[in-house]
Amino acid sequence: MGKLSIEEMRDFSHFSHEHPLELTNLWPQGHTVCSGCKMSIVAGKDYYTCKPCSYYLHSTCYNLPRLIQHPADPNHDLNLVPSASFDCKACGLRGSGFSYNCSFCLVHCHTYVPQCHSQKHTVFILTH
Ligand SMILES: [Zn+2]
Ligand SMILES: [Zn+2]
Ligand SMILES: [Zn+2]
Ligand SMILES: [Zn+2]
Question: Which of 16, 43, 74, 75 is most buried, by CB atoms within 10 Å?
Fold first, then answer.
């Protein structure tokens, strides 16, 4: 007796943030962007948040696989990592937030531009 169940208080954790995250789809406070893709958080779509830190993640960004295979780096799997900024190997554009990275080859790719990490129609831009 007297043992309280806290099962309903589901916590979600993500490697990119040290605190447990809360799943919600209510309007966030003020203008908020996803830490994974730097795009706006909107109500009505599930997202994960750590309110004390004003940390937000779209559920799609939360659910990104940690490892992918990418034609930009056929020898290694790419790791999902938080990056301050990077140059995407697939489309040549600058990005920030999460990227897929090979730390040996210094390859980065967008996580949120499907063409940038799809195996099928990746267009490589040669930069010199
Ligand atoms: Zn996002
Ligand atoms: Zn936090
Ligand atoms: Zn890209
Ligand atoms: Zn590599």
Answer: 16
Domain 12-62, classified CATH 3.40.50, yes or no: no
Residue pair 111/64 in contact (Cβ under 8 Å)? The answer is yes
Which pairing describes strands 17-24 and 12-14: parallel, antiparallel, or unpaired?
antiparallel
Q: Identify the CA nearest to 38 among candidates 106, 119, 98, 122.
A: 98
Ligand 2 midpoint to CA 81 (Å):
17
Domain ranges of the chain: 12-62, 67-117
Q: Which of 110, 100, 95 is nearest to 77 (CA)?
A: 100
Neighbours of 108 (CB within 10 A): 25
Q: Are 43 and 25 in contact (CB under 8 A)?
A: yes
Ligand nearest to the CA of 61: 1
The Å distance, Cα 18 to ligand 2 centre, comes to 6
Pairing of strands 94-102, 12-14: unpaired
Instruction: State whether residue 81 is helix, strand or coil.
Output: strand
Q: Answer whether 0.85 is exceeded by the pTM.
A: no
